[in-house]
Amino acid sequence: MYKQWFGNWKRRLVQLVSLGIIGEWSFYGIFRCPFAVPYIGCGNCPVIQCPGRNLWMWGWILMGLSAVLFGRVFCGWICPGGLVSEILSMGAFFKNKINRIASNLFSVGKYIVLALSLYLFFVANNPRWAIPIRTGEFFKSVGLTFEHADPIWIYKTMAILIALGLSIFIPMFWCRFFCPTGGALELLSRFSLFRFITNEKCTSCDRCLKMCAMETRPSESNCVQCGDCLDTCKLDAVEWRSRIRST
Amino acid sequence: MEKNGLSRRRFLKTGGLALGAGLAAASPGFSQTYAQESLQVWSCGGLAEAFQPANHEFEKLTKASIAYTGAFAGALGKSLLTGSARTEVFGPRVLELAKKLKAQGKMLWFKPLCFTQYVVATPKGNPAGIESIKDMGKSGVKTILAPEASPPGGKASMIILKKAGVEDKARANAVFVGDCVQTAVTDLVTGKADAAVIEKRIIHLPQFRGKLDTLPIPEAFIPPAPVPFTIGVMKWAKNRALAEAFVDFILSDKGQVWFHRAGFIPAQTEEGQRLTRKYGVMDV
Ligand code: SF4
Ligand code: SF4
Ligand code: SF4
Predict the structure, then answer these.
(1) Domain residues of chain A, as ranges?
(2) How far apart, in whole angstroms, are the C-alpha atoms of residue A184 and residue A40?
(3) Dihedral pair phi/psi, residue B228, rounded to 5°
(4) Secondary structure percentages of chain B, helix, strand, coil, to 5
(5) Residue of A nearest to B187 (CA)
(6) What's the sign of the alpha-carbon dihedral A182, A185, A191, A197?
């Protein structure tokens, strides 16, 4: 576990720095964002304390760009939600117990949530489901938000918290099966120019899969380009490949 | 259209601050320091853009720290009236709310703070040539409405349109009907719509500043309830002197100028005093 956590220390460092920069935005998005879909309509948001008002445009541009260049690198290196999922997954009860077929089946969940989010944002004009606590101490404001939110906001927030919390049982439950951002980045990552892949030396021994927090293999779905599996393969079958060079 | 960022000196001149003597009497309080002391202040969220810089200035002057929450006054009021919520100073919209809190003994006293204004907003340059609120009912005019927005953005605007006799036509002309005034106003800025009835404070928000023109709405069309804001000291104020010094500061020229800049009519101006009398904003 120690090796997995600190072996790739550069990734941990980047995650911590990003937690400092966008972590607060994540918490606001979950607990205080009054809109059905957080993080998107921030330019007009009445919650003046949320850092999203300054970060959102560049955040999304850079995220999209990163996916086209490096696949789901945002998930593996930057996302505070991913870091929280990893922490919760550390002692997960059902590590490597969900078979590939079930895992692939549940993975569809994140596309369903993505489709729902896109519908709510583009078709339903991103309705407001909670009273915006425009400014105020974080925890007191969270309390007020819960007190005055529509029931549907409470259900949505509970669904997010439960999906995040389920990582205690099934590793990275939220990121693998539920996160709409992960779903969008997964789709874009199909076109990524650089990524980890398994090469022809791979014998499918699944050593990489057993140590992978996302329970996948390089170049397969849900790989977040973390690079943690790079040194696990004794056959040097995991490599960082540029599509430009290889085509 | 009125220029944004009017200087304080000009505000004092044009606003005709009538309570000079009262303010002078309140002034010594500001020089007193309250280091290490904190004060919890809640207000209607519409006032957040004014309260934030005003609070900051009070903190600089007195070394006290202000823990400020701004949100829909109806929700905050409900928490205070029926829940276990507590705050030391409260600046609600709607006079009735202040009166109810006073009647329950939760608010010790209150004073008029400021008044909101409703306007017809158009994109910069008014490309559709809107001349008055009546034009929102003309065919071909694209309107935006946010009837589901938390009061007063939603319901009050609809009442104004109704009193102007154009509600149905303005609804039929709507290119956007939503639940968030700020989202709706974006369509105005981008020119997707021609006109909307909004609070003047909205055009002072950083994202819309300088991007909209406004036309006045006859006062007879404006419902009284959402117009006045008050500020009062609550029974939970731990340090009454600090809470009172804060209210004095907010009602002084230094405090009130922020409310003017955010698009409100400060209570301490001649116009504010006229509205105080008109709406009967009295603590009884
Ligand atoms: S800025 Fe507003 S819309 Fe964006 S995440 Fe924060 S609370 Fe939500
Ligand atoms: S899947 Fe979602 S929560 Fe997980 S790392 Fe990616 S963006 Fe973050
Ligand atoms: S397969 Fe390797 S690079 Fe991809 S997520 Fe798993 S450990 Fe990280």
Answers:
(1) 2-191
(2) 13
(3) -85, 145
(4) 45, 20, 35
(5) A44
(6) negative
Sequence-distant (≥ 6) Cβ neighbours of residue B260 within 8 angstroms? B6, B11, B15, B266, B269
Q: Which of A41, A45, A135 faces B68 most closely, judged by CB atoms?
A: A135
Question: Is there a contact between B71 and A140 if contact means CB atoms under 8 Å apart?
Answer: no
Q: What is the pTM of this model?
A: 0.86
Protein residue whose Cα sits closest to atom 8 of ligand 1:
A33
Using CA coordinates, name the residue in chain B closest to A46.
Answer: B182
DSSP string, A69-99: HHSTHIIIII-HHHHHHHHHHTT-TTTTTS-
* Four-residue CA torsion sign, B164, B169, B175, B181: positive
pLDDT tens digit sequence for B245-279: 999 999 999 999 999 999 999 999 999 999 999 99
Domain locations in chain B? 2-116+227-279, 118-221
pLDDT exceeding 90 applies to what percent of chain A?
78
Distance (angstroms) between ligand 2 centre and the Cα of B92 equals 40
Burial class (CB in 10 A: 0-12, 13-18, 19+), A7: middle
Whether chain B has a CB inside 8 Å of the CB on A147: the answer is yes
Residue A122 near chain B (CB below 8 Å): no
Thinking of the domain B118-221, which architecture would CATH place it in?
A: 3-Layer(aba) Sandwich (3.40)
Please tell me if the domain spanning B2-116+227-279 has the same topology as the one spanning B118-221. yes
Is B83 part of the contact surface with chain A (CB cutoff 8 Å)?
yes
Q: What is the ipTM of this complex?
A: 0.82
- With 0-12 / 13-18 / 19 or more C-beta atoms within 10 angstroms meaning exposed / middle / buried, residue A129 is buried
What is the helix (H) or strand (E) element at residue B108, kind and residue range? strand B107-115
CB atoms A135 and B69 under 8 Å? yes
* Residues 6+ away with beta carbon under 8 Å from B211: B123, B124, B189, B203
Beta strands across the sheet bearing B228-234:
A133-135, B65-71, B38-44, B89-91, B228-234, B107-115, B265-266
- C-alpha of B230 from chain center: 10
Atom number of ligand 3 nearest to Cα A220: 1
How near does any CA of chain A get to the CA of B81, in Å?
Answer: 14
Locate A219 and state its tokens.
């170049």
A63 C-beta closer than 6 A to ligand 3 = no
For the segment B182-226, what is each residue's pLDDT rounded down to a tens digit? 778 888 998 899 999 999 999 999 889 999 999 999 999 999 999
- CATH classification (class only), B2-116+227-279: alpha beta
Q: Which residue has the tokens 């850079």?
A: A62
Given the CA of residue A218, which atom of ligand 3 is nearest to it?
1
